[in-house]
Amino acid sequence: MSNRYSKIMLIVITIFCVFFMAITYIDSSLLDPVRVYANYFLVPIQRNVSHFGNAAAAEIRENRHLHEVYAENQELMKRIDELVAENNRLRSDSLELERLRELYKLDQNYRDYPTVAARVISRDSQKWFNIFRVDKGLADGITKDMNVIGGGGLIGIVVDVGANYATVRSIIDDESNVYAMSQYSNDTCLVKGNIEAYETGALNISNIDKNAVFNDGDAVITSNLSTKYLPGILIGYASDININSQHLTKSGRLIPVADFSDIQEVLIITQIKTESGIVQPDSE
Amino acid sequence: MRFKTIVKRIIIYFVLIMFAFILQTCLFPMVRFLFAAPNLLLIITFSYGFMYGPTTGIICGLFAGLMMDTFYSEPFGLFIMIYSYLGFFCGLFTEEYRNDSMILPLILCVVCDFFYNAAMIVYRILTFGFVNMEFLLKKVVLPEMFFTLLVTIAVYHILLNTNRKLDQIDDLRGQNAA
């Protein structure tokens, strides 16, 4: 008996899912209310759990650090001179790195976009999609298509927003396409996320004109051509730029400035790009 | 089963799946050394389908899919369909459940995870038109299957014993009421 029930259930679910998949495929915003109401319930829990998790992770990291320091201390007892010398060298290196990073940051002449800080509350542990959720939503003036930056560069775009949360698609997601340009030559290119490229810490750049001046190490920023991304946001640095086999375009890889493996806080730019220019959406 | 028991069971499934989903989305990404994370929702769906039959499997699959569908902005219903089919599929083997052997559940776990990942790959082919099969298998599918299997070995017995206890409680209640 139960078998017959289950078959009927399965058929109903199949029809239901196919129907909804079809309508969301045509217009993805049709079912947004369902997502929004479901998340009224889920998001507060996620927020608290991830807050707790962050605290615990920090605690564990600190503990591990302490153990490391202790072990290192023991080592130092034995070979104190050698290690102190090495330590000094490393410290001066890291200071230099920090200074250089500061210089780089100053070098980026960002436009001053107004931003809102948000905390990442959930991210799926599976690798199929690169999407995460932050704890700011409509109530904080966030709307769809707002750009998200962090760690010195572009991170993604808001694809879905509810009263108290927003879902962000990272630029490393396969569905992400960003029109960008070289900061020096203003030659345009297309930055595409790719699960495979990201495994090596990079994104793909393509559609560069074969005559364009585009060199390895060039800073790549979002372009005016993009319909959703605000111009002038740093994405990363070009590398491995090569002419394609058909000799029509160049392509290569882009090393992003933002560290996507460890995003905890992000900044959401509260202006959006529309056909009539960059506007501040009315807060409801 | 009485109506109250059924409702109670459904609430238990829902809470359990929500718990697993939150674990999967909030805490697993913080564990750095995991290069892949187990698919807890799949484990729950297939265990319950296997233990209680296709109807339960479908209900669990429905809840699990609902969580995933509200989280992602892919076409709504994609995950519901995948998970409920897997729940139903495992439910078909419920007759074999009586003995305590772990072999069949583990085989089912691998088969389910394989189908789940195959569905994801098909979805990718449909949206992007191409996939690098070798890379996906090596870096995404196999690590995930490995961890899911590992967690199934650890969790399956806990689920099994908890459910036996719940069954006993429900049976006793049923007798008292009669």
**Globular, elongated, flat, extended or rod-shaped: what is the shape of chain B?**
globular
The number of domains of chain A is 3
CATH 2nd-level architecture of chain B: Orthogonal Bundle
Number of discrete domains of chain B: 1
- Largest sheet properties of chain B: none
- Which oligomeric state applies? heterodimer
Protein described:
The complex is a heterodimer of chains A (284) and B (178). Chain A contains four helices and 14 strands. With 284 residues, chain A is α+β, with helices and mostly antiparallel strands. In chain A, a hairpin with a 4-residue loop joins strand 4 and strand 5 (166-170). Chain B is mostly helical and 178 residues long. Chain B is 79% helix and 0% strand. Chain B has helices at residues 3-27, 40-52, 54-71, 78-91, 103-128, 133-177. In chain B, helix 1 runs parallel beside helix 3, helix 2 packs across helix 5 and helix 4 (78-91) packs antiparallel against helix 5 (103-128). The radius of gyration of chain B is 17 Å and the shape is globular. The mean pLDDT of chain B is 84. At the A-B interface, helix 1, helix 2, strand 1 and helix 4 of A face helix 1, helix 3, helix 4, helix 5 and helix 6 of B.
What characteristics describe this protein?
heterodimer; A: 284 residues; alpha+beta; Thrombin, subunit H; 4 helices; 37% helix; 29% strand; B: 178 residues; mainly alpha; globular
List the helices and strands and how they pair.
The complex is a heterodimer of chains A (284) and B (178).
Chain A (H helix, E strand, L loop, with lengths): L1 H25 L5 H47 L1 H28 L7 E9 L7 E4 L12 E4 L2 E9 L4 E5 L6 E6 L5 E5 L2 H5 L3 E7 L9 E4 L11 E10 L5 E8 L8 E5 L2 E3 L2 E3 L5
Antiparallel strand pairs in A: 1-2, 1-12, 2-5, 3-4, 3-12, 4-5, 6-7, 6-9, 7-8, 8-11, 9-10, 10-11, 13-14
Helix pairs in contact in A: 2-3
Chain B lengths: L2 H25 L12 H13 L1 H18 L6 H14 L11 H26 L4 H45 L1
